[in-house]
GTP-binding protein (Halorubrum tibetense), 402 residues
Amino acid sequence: MSDTIPVTVLSGALGAGKTTTLNHVLTADHGYEVAVLINDMGEVNVDADHIEQQSELSQTDEEIIEMSNGCICCRLRGDMLEAVGALAENRDFDYLLIESSGISEPIPVAQTFVLGYEDADYDPTEDFHLDTMVSVVDAHAMYEGFDSGRALADDDAATGTDRVPEEVLMDQIEFCDVLLLNKCDLVPDDELDEIEAVLGTLQPRAEVVRTEFGRVEPSTILDTGRFDFEEAKRSAGWRHELEHGHHHDDAAAEHGVESFVFRADRPLHPERIAELFENLPSAVIRAKGFFWSAGREDVAMGLDKAGQSVRAGPKGRWIATLPPQQQQRYLQTMPDLEEEWDDRWGDRGVELVFIGREFDRSELEAWLEDCLLTDEELNENWDRYPDPFGDEDQRELALADD
Ligand SMILES: Nc1nc2c(ncn2[C@@H]2O[C@H](COP(=O)(O)OP(=O)(O)OP(=O)(O)O)[C@@H](O)[C@H]2O)c(=O)[nH]1
């Protein structure tokens, strides 16, 4: 057991701050050779897209595996095992850090590591042991919906096949060893005390740590030895999962959560798109990606909506704005990029992911289309358009107006 590789699994609702936490920990001084597996909800993993090559994540040397288009708690369970099995063959890392998708249920992920999985030949216990289950909780979302937080506490119906994300959230809270109460900067201290009290009642065993932008000591989530198999086995969820099996094979579909990606290779009108971002339907629970705002050819704008917060603004650089040598490096390593490269505009474009429950996708798509420059506008002087996004990093749009 002692020479098996420890595994930490990060769970947490969509937009709670898992990636932010992961970035923070990976760039901190942790002393491990970490391999990372990221499971993102949605067809494409925008977090890993090329404009973000400059992000902190890619500046670290970690081996990163991405699994999109499904959840590692269900459809991708076997795939996950195969991937970590292949990783383990080389053994050139000594820690495995997993970020599961926002709607992944933590128990099946834990069971996959502790018990293996019937459809996979690889037995993960030969190489790995589960060290810490971490849940990232969005303190601001809890604060905003404190009433529903109470409903959560009363809800013992985490069984059956009609599980909804609130119940997944419940599982994420109840089945973890460390609870990161994130986004504490957005919530008054006395409210945080109350939220912490609720969390403590729901999961007395977990260590609760308050964080802002995922800034946590690596030792809080790495090699803590806190995962307790005996304890886990006693939890109702664990037994239920074993008795009934993990029936669904697509958590997203089951929860009515869907995602779509909007792509375009022409710019968006800054005022129209800012207005749309400020008025996104509430059924859209998460949106992210990057876009080209007409008149701001110098910078890749990012969108980041998590719950009620909508932030947009400069996020990264287009590869087309990099010095030629660096540009060549990207183009050589990314064949897709070369294919999509526009002679005049390079990689500038729009790629936005929208995740929601029962939202009208075609209506949203039509609105987005309307925000693209028309053929006529393409010939105008874009520099005359007012720029609602400014020069700062992504800033809050919706909250500022409330
Ligand atoms: N104000 C504030 N914003 C935060 C904090 N942590 C993260 N955010 C922002 O919240 C948004 C979502 O953060 P992510 O780290 O991408 O969340 P995630 O859980 O990985 O999201 P998914 O992968 O889509 O499930 C981003 O805009 C972050 O900058 C925080 O502590 N305070």
The chain has two domains: 5-253, 257-401.
